[in-house]
Amino acid sequence: MIDSKTRDEILRRCAIFHYLGDSAICSDYDQLPPDELWERYGWVMDKENDSICNHDLKLVPRDD
Asked: Are 41 and 14 in contact (CB under 8 A)?
């Protein structure tokens, strides 16, 4: 089971990729249970995606 902070970050990153048109992110990503969310979209947490997701593009609000 993933914690709520990790779940929120996966959802935020999925929203960014979805907005940018990444076809790997299905439109129902925000309705998945935490374990399935991690299984399908845990890859958005990979370090190689940090450069896209950590820019302050103001596409998706971030709680710091």
From this structure: yes
Q: For residue 7, is pLDDT > 80?
A: yes
Round to whole Å and give the CA distance between 58 and 1: 29
Torsion over CA: 12, 15, 21, 32 (sign): positive
Measured distance CA(58)–CA(61) in Å, rounded: 6
Structure tokens at 37: 């969310």
End-to-end CA distance of the chain: 23
Using the predicted structure, report yes or no on whether residue 6 has a pLDDT greater than 90: yes
Residue whose C-alpha is closest to residue 10's, from 59, 1, 40: 40
SS3 state at 55: coil
